[in-house]
Amino acid sequence: MTEKRNGKMQAKEAVSPEIFQGGDFGELLNNHVEKKIDQHEKELLSAVGADYGEALTLARNNDLDKAEWYMNKAHQEQENFSQTSLVYQLLDLHGLPVKAYFHYKKKEYKLAEQYLRDSTSKSADLVKEGFYMVECHRIQQLHNLARMYFKRNELEHGGQMISEALLYMTQEMIPTVDSNWHVDSLRQCPMSLRCGMILQLALETAGELLPPTLRQQELYKSAFGNWSEPLPGLTDCEPLNQWIKLKNLYLLEHSDEAFVESAIDFALTAPAQFDILKLVLIVNMTDTLRKTSNYDPAVYKDLSAFGQKLKVSRRYKLACFTYMQP
Q1: Which of helix, strand or coil describes residue 11?
Q2: Which of 159-173, 191-205, 243-257, 306-320 has the lowest mean pLDDT?
C-alpha cells in the first residue's frame, strides 16, 4: 500500500491488528506476541480471536444459537494449526474461556468447569515459553470458577477460589488448584496489573456479601479470612486492606464503638472506586447499632441517604435498604 507525502509516493507502514484486548494485560501480551509470530500468523490469530469474541458477546446476550455458530467456526479455523504450535496455544487463551461461558449459559456446569480448568492448566505451557503475563490469565480463571460457583449458590467453593487467587497475588502463596504455577512469572508482571486484578476480584466478591446472611458471613471468612498485609508495591490495594481490617473488627465481640467510628471514616474518605465496600460497612453498622439500641428511623434515614449517593447497582441498594429498615 502506498500514500503520497511531500509530492512523492511512499510505502505505507502496515498496521498490525490488535490480537488481544484487555487493558494492561492485553498490551503486554500483544507486545510479546509481536516478537514471536509473523504477520500472516498475527492476522489469522486476530481474525479467529475476533470470532471467539463475537461468540462471547452473543452468549452474554443469550443468543446461544448464533454464539455456537461463531464458536464452532473459530474452533474449526483453530484446528488448522498443530495443537503444539504457538498460534494454537494462543488461540486457546481466547477459546477455552469462551467455551466455558457458553456451556455455563446452557447450564452445562460440568463442561463449563472443565473448560476453565483446562484454560488454567494448558496455558502453563505458554508461561514456560516466556509469556510471563499469561500467569495472570491463569489466575483469572480462578476468578471465573468463583463466579460460576457463586451463580450456582456454591458459596464455599467460590470463596475458596477467591482466597487462593488473592493469596497468590498478594502473598505469592501457590494455589492448590491445578499445578505448575510460576511465581517468578507473576513477579515479572507490573504491580499495577496485579493490583487491578486484586481489586476487580475483591470488589466483585464484596457484592456477593449483600444483603448479609449467615451464609454471607461464611463466604467472607472463606474468601478473605486468610488475608494479611499485601506485599510492598501493591499500594493501590490499601483501601481494600483497610476494609478487611474493619470487617474483621466487626466480627469481633465488644468492638462496636470502634467499628462504627472507623467505618464512618472509611465511608467518608475512601475513593468512589470502593463504594461497594462502603455499602457493606453501612449494612454492618446497621446491625451494630441495632445491638446497642441506637438505631431508629432518623439514623436509617441518614444512612440510606448516604447510601443512595454511592455508585453501586440499584439491585444492591434496594436489597440493602430493605434489610436496613428499622
Answers
A1: strand
A2: 243-257
Structural contact between residues 178 and 120, judged by C-beta atoms closer than 8 angstroms: yes
> Could you tell me the residue ranges of all domains in the chain?
15-100
267: nearest Cα among 249, 247, 286, 243: 243
Q: Left if phi > 0, otherwise alpha if psi is -120 to 50, otherwise beta: which for 166?
A: alpha
Distance from C-alpha of 195 to C-alpha of 189, rounded to nearest angstrom: 10
DSSP symbol at 188: H
Spatial separation of the C-alpha atoms in residues 199 and 202, rounded to whole Å: 5
**Phi, psi (rounded to 5 degrees) for 204:** -65, -40
Helix/strand/coil (H/E/C) assignment for every residue in 72-92: HHHHHHHCCCCCCCHHHHHHH
DSSP codes of every residue in 137-167: HHHHHHHHHHHHHHHTT-HHHHHHHHHHHHH
Give tens-digit pLDDT for 49-67.
999 999 999 999 999 999 9
Residue 85 in contact with residue 93, Cβ under 8 Å? no
Task: Record the pTM.
Answer: 0.89
Q: Which three cell numbers stand for residue 280?
A: 457493606
Cross-strand partners of 11: 2
Tell me the C-alpha distance between 142 and 135, whole Å.
11
pLDDT higher than threshold 80 for residue 12: no
Q: Which amino acid is at 164?
A: E
What the block records as the C-alpha cell of 16 is 498490525
H-state helical runs in the chain: 23-34, 39-60, 64-78, 86-105, 109-122, 124-128, 134-151, 155-171, 183-188, 191-207, 214-224, 238-251, 256-269, 275-291, 297-308, 314-324
Max CA pair span of the chain: 84
Strands 8-11 and 2-5: antiparallel
Q: State CA 250 to chain mean position distance.
A: 26
- pLDDT at position 3 is 37
